[in-house]
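User: Assemble these into one structure.

Assistant: Restating your components, then the assembled model:
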Amino acid sequence: MPTELQSRARPSVPRTGHGEAIVLENVSRSYRERRGAVVQALAGVSLRASPSEIVAVVGPSGCGKTTLLELICGLQAPEEGSIACAPAVLMPQRDLLLPWLTAVDNAALALRIARLARGQARDRAAELFAELGLDGFQHAYPRELSGGMRQRVAFLRTLLSGKPVLCLDEPFGALDAITRGEMQDWLARALASEPRTVVLVTHDVEEAIVLADRVVVLSPRPGRVIEELEVDLARPRARTGAAVIALRERALDGLQLAAAARAGTA
Amino acid sequence: MSNTAARSTRRGDRLRGRALATVLPPLVLVGALLGGWEAYVDSGSTSSFVLPAPHSIATALWDNAGLLAANLKPTATEVVLGIMLALVLGFALAVLIHLSAPLRRAIYPLAIGSQAVPIAVIAPLLVFWWGFGMFPKLVVILLICFFPVLVTTVDGLAAVDPDQLKLMRTLDASRWQAFRFAELPAALPAAISGARIALTVGVIGAYIAESQTATFGGHAGLGHEINADLTALQTPRAYAAAVVLFAFAIACFYALALAERRLAPWANRPTGEHR
């Protein structure tokens, strides 16, 4: 129900006290499906991220990744466990650009919501267009942009909210392989110049290892953390690098073990 | 050179062809209907008091052009003003219904029920309150026309993607900002569709209004004229007045389609003919 929309002050997510950007302790969350069945999305997930750290969360589809991000952003509340977090903004899976606004106005949406005048908001968003390879498309409507460009505008909109934590929900999931590779390179550069704490949800293990400082592997539903991999590799990372491939194998092994264990208990 | 010349002639041909394709189908249909009508009247199976032949309607139209134009003016004014009031009321009620569940439960059944009340029942009250001028007629058109705007706008507001609202929340939008940036523009094409329905119903609404609430003085409107002509067995002139209403409704419909292209260019959908 749209009437449940909360106003700007959202005290439901307490701030962290001690130098961490995100602290999740033993968080569980379930939801009721339309037919009344209760689905356990997350079971006892603990997760920490320090400021400017990039944490990737990988797992099979339906392991509660989106739920995890919505909990961090305060769009849902946990049933068990505790969450403390710096202000976080969600970049949903779909770009959700408003079709009646131009690219620059879509990017500036958070600034307009923060009550900046339209002209000022536009100017601030337009400054970043060249940096994101969007120069010349300021006044294009979303339907005139390619998938990769739309995703970049959506990222800019997320960035301009000014929040220290970015929750990216499979940001490149809908793109073709070549565009996705380009966008990963681009995101790595953007975060190097504009450091934020990032929680990146993806089902692409390779993407996680190329981009993240740490990879958290979730089990199939109900999601729980089955493995945490430190990615201590120099940037930029090549997808075909030996170290990347070795880590990818480890993560995939973990996922397979979890799937096998689940099949065994079922 | 000759190549470009040839291409431009071909382009001219194509444009002419397209214009023909636009105009031809309605012309053929109208021609066939009129021809059949004329033949039916000629066969003598009805009286010309009941159904005048198209050519006598055309004559009546020509002979009474001044009278019909003078009567179109008040009717057109009623329709345009009445529709505007209906748009304001329908849209405002839709927003209230959308934003508040208790108001939805309170208002919606009343709005639906209001459509079942024959205007004849309340017409004396409207005249008692507001006299014989234009205002009670506007109220009648308002009562008939606000409903399609209300229903389409309520549906348009409810059809907004829930993920879009989630996005507004994560960007810290207030309820009002979510409404203003996401819901209101999203509902605009639906509201305009409602306006188009309202407009076509509004013309018949003007007829009902003029029939049900009396007017003093001459040129009381086309609806009034039609009733007077039917009583006086001036059937061709009544038909001629109906033809004027017919053309007016079509003109209004396409004028609104043009306005829609201005107001909601992103909607970019078929507007009743080609895009």
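The CA atoms of residues 102 and 263 of chain B lie 31 Å apart.
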